[in-house]
Amino acid sequence: MSHDDRIILESRDLSKTYYSTDPPTQVLNGIDLTVRQGEFLVVMGASGSGKSTLLYSISGMDRPTSGNVLLQGSDITSLKDVELSRVRLTEMGFIFQQAYFLSNLNIRDNILLPALKANPKEKDAAVARVDALMERFGIAHVKQHGITQVSGGQIQRASICRALACSPSILFADEPTGALNSSMTTEVMDTLTDVHREGTTLVMVTHDPACAARADRVIYLRDGLLVDSRELGTWNKDGATQREDELLAWLRKKGF
Question: Residue 78 class from Cβ within 10 Å (0-12 exposed, 13-18 middle, 19+ buried)?
């Protein structure tokens, strides 16, 4: 499913400074960004350019020093912590390089946990949704396994299931393939591509041009500034190699 012109997420003059250093470190410097409904947006840039800080700031995981973030037109920067936590739980899904699963729970219960926290009275519906997600992404057979009994690719597919368990409006992914080998990376990116095609808005940070080439659009950060943007259009497997080559050439011109 392609994106439309409705804006689901917007940042206005977003800045982030860390005052714990001497002198203070400005990591983001007045970022204006819009993300369209159903879009797959990738954030790239050299190490230290502010990619993850931007992701955390627009997703409410970290508060910006100044500027505003609007989710579906509502300013989330002005929310109290408890309200912001509720928005993250019910409206957003998160996938990280590490899964952050609890070792005392099996795979299925780890996936189920946020859905039960979001709607404790809707347990049956949550269980049915989680079981359907695990079936869909090919990990139903490991639902009773512990987190050390499955592969890295299976863990990340479980992370995607967990992120989708509350039917979020938008999915954030921070280097979701960073700890995976090439075959597991393809497995996880195929899963994310399927999720996006079904209409989920996805914002992902990656250093991998092959992963970035799956996106509708790539933005490039340098020293906390959004310096360029490239529309890629809809990804398809047949033209993947040429698309990756063209993106890599564009990135190299940026000093990547």
Answer: exposed
- Considering the entire predicted model, what is its pTM? 0.94
Mean pLDDT by 10 residues, the chain (256 residues): 78 95 92 97 94 96 96 95 94 92 95 92 92 94 95 93 94 94 92 94 96 97 96 92 95 92
Rounded Cα distance, 133 and 205, in Å: 24
Backbone angles phi, psi at 54, to 5 degrees: -65, -45
What does the DSSP assignment read for 101-162?
Answer: --TTS-HHHHHHHHHHHH-GGGHHHHHHHHHHHHHHTT-GGGTTS-GGGS-HHHHHHHHHHH
Q: H helices within the chain, ranges in order?
A: 51-58, 81-91, 107-118, 123-136, 152-164, 182-197, 209-212, 240-253
Token look-up 């002005």 returns 78
Q: How many CA atoms are closer than 13 Å to the CA of 113, on its beta-carbon side?
A: 13
Per-residue confidence (pLDDT) for residue 4, from 0 to 100: 65
Hey, CA dihedral for 225, 212, 169, 60, is it positive or negative? negative
Beta bridge partner(s), residue 172: 94, 203
